[in-house]
Specification:
heterodimer, A: 291 residues, alpha/beta, Glutathione S-transferase Yfyf (Class Pi), Chain A, domain 2, Rossmann fold, 4-stranded parallel β-sheet, 3-stranded parallel β-sheet, B: 204 residues, mainly alpha, Fumarate Reductase Iron-sulfur Protein, Chain B, domain 2, 12 helices
Chain lengths: 291, 204
């Protein structure tokens, strides 16, 4: 089956390992990703904070290109891109005047037809389908992840229908269980890590991450799993700083969900590029004899 | 003898309230101060202004405090307040509006680094249509340093350079630094959207 794909800027740059993993895992599932052509940055949080028009118009250009692909569904793995495109689509459906103004600027018009999906909306039904067990033969026994969603997968700046529980989502847990991992119940799964604030307001972001780390450790987690490239980057790259500042000795790997799926499917850690984590991601898997 | 506890001028408060309501699309009058937003706000404690207090300040017409407080800038747009509000008030939309009002009024931002971040982000994406991390960091640090020089804050400049150099080196070591330049082919279309945005904000 073909699905349109918007990978966005992060998956083209510092988190391009996530892009590689997504392609490998989706390939095994028989899903062919068609990257939309000549896409642009969605504007992320900065557009929303500086210009209301651009916050809708920048994602809209991508929606128009995606609609023109004729495919029924587009998967957007980055939580921020996903949120921005989904909210833009909704806003245009509600505001015909704005829809017309923006379409007048675009070569490929927004039709509002394509279904905008997060990576979980695609993966959850896949792991629940018959035959998945045969594709993922390695059971990730001993892996106890704190499943971390962050903000933008379930909370939106508008009235958007959420495909999971807002306060206690279960999508990542469902995928983890399907590959034999034992996800834990914990309190900070939808708390904010600070995202870009780690650059412009570092102290706040480190404090937020310390709370997330402390709760996960207190619950007995031996790793985090996330689908958001910003959450992954922050907890991964800044973990030492958080630990030093807040007296946390433990260091936990921050896995992308596609890494767990990939390992369960027997995809090599080299192909998944697990060596590109800031906080060691290979040690735990070796210790649990999963590699 | 009596002292006023709250100074309240209905005319001032009404004009501020309606301006914020119109621009943010949020019905602030529906707030009954239950503080569910305050309980979930990740920066309310630190900034000393939780979403409910910000709304109250607007209702009371305290324009100066409304446009000059840390929450307006430090709001992370996590949307916890709006998701939990029983009356559907999205305070993150209010802080967005207030940031823009602060700029329009020509006031200095209460958190200059955050302002520099968003400004540099938008300017980076307007150049090539895509966000290039290295280009962005260059723009952001330039803007940041310029502001710090104006304040004569050399310590902040040294710390910033040390922190970012450390992160940059680790990123290179972990092959997380992307050197190539990403750009949109049809840049005229993206530029058109930016121009349209500029024209619209002038009309306002």
């Amino acid at each position: 089956m073909e699905i349109a794909y918007y990978r966005g800027c992060s998956l083209h740059a510092s988190s391009n390992l996530y892009d590689i993993q997504i392609k490998a895992v989706f390939g095994r599932l028989g899903l062919e990703l068609k990257e939309i052509e000549d896409w642009n940055c969605c504007g992320a949080t900065s557009a929303a904070k500086t210009d209301e028009f651009l916050a809708v118009a920048l994602p809209a250009r991508n929606l128009g290109i995606a609609d023109a692909s004729g495919l029924p569904e587009i998967v957007i793995p980055c939580s921020s891109c996903y949120s921005r495109l989904l909210v833009s689509q909704k806003k245009l459906a509600e505001d015909p005047a704005l829809h017309e103004t923006i379409n007048a600027q675009l070569e490929k018009k927004v039709l509002g037809k394509i279904k905008v999906s997060s990576i979980l909306e695609v993966l959850v039904p896949e792991v629940q389908a018959e035959g998945f067990a045969g594709m993922a033969s390695k059971k990730l026994d001993g892996l106890k992840p704190a499943c971390y969603y962050g903000c933008l997968l379930t909370r939106f700046p508008g009235n958007v229908k959420v495909p999971d529980n807002v306060e206690n989502p279960q999508g990542i847990e469902t995928v983890c269980r399907a590959v034999g991992a034992q996800p834990l119940d914990w309190s900070y799964k939808t708390d904010c890590c600070g995202a870009a604030a780690v650059i412009n307001n570092t102290g706040t972001s480190l404090q937020l991450m310390s709370r997330i780390m402390k709760d996960a450790i207190a619950r007995g987690a031996n790793c985090f799993v996330t689908t958001c490239p910003m959450c992954q980057f922050n907890l991964d790259a800044y973990q030492d700083q958080v630990g030093e500042k807040y007296g946390i000795k433990e260091r936990l790997p921050i896995y992308f969900l596609t890494e767990l799926l990939g390992i369960a499917m027997g995809i090599s850690p080299e192909l998944l590029q697990l060596d590109r984590h800031f906080t060691d991601a290979l040690g735990l898997l070796k210790e649990l004899k999963l590699l | 003898m009596s002292f006023p506890i709250v100074e309240f001028d209905p005319e001032v408060s009404q004009s501020l309230l309606h301006e914020v309501m119109e621009q943010s699309g949020q019905n602030l009058q529906a707030c009954y101060q239950c503080r569910r937003c305050a309980a979930g706000c990740p920066v309310g404690e630190e900034t000393g202004v939780s979403p409910d207090r910000l709304i109250r300040m607007i209702l009371l017409g305290e324009k100066e405090e409304v446009l000059n407080n840390q929450l307006v800038w430090k709001c992370l747009a996590c949307y916890t307040c709006g998701t939990r509000c029983p009356n559907g008030i999205q305070t993150a939309k209010i802080t967005e509006t207030l940031k823009q009002m602060c700029k329009q009024a020509g006031l200095a931002p209460a958190a200059p680094k955050i302002d520099a971040f968003h400004h540099s982000f938008m300017s980076a994406t307007s150049h090539f249509g895509r966000f290039n991390e290295l280009e962005f960091m260059g723009l952001y640090e330039m803007e940041n340093t310029r502001e710090a020089i104006k304040r004569g804050d050399w310590k902040a400049i040294a710390k910033e350079m040390k922190d970012q150099a450390k992160l940059g080196l680790t990123m290179i070591k972990k092959k997380r630094m992307h050197m190539g330049l990403e750009k949109v082919k049809k840049m005229s279309e993206v530029k058109g959207l930016y121009n349209k945005a500029k024209a619209r904000s002038k009309d306002r």
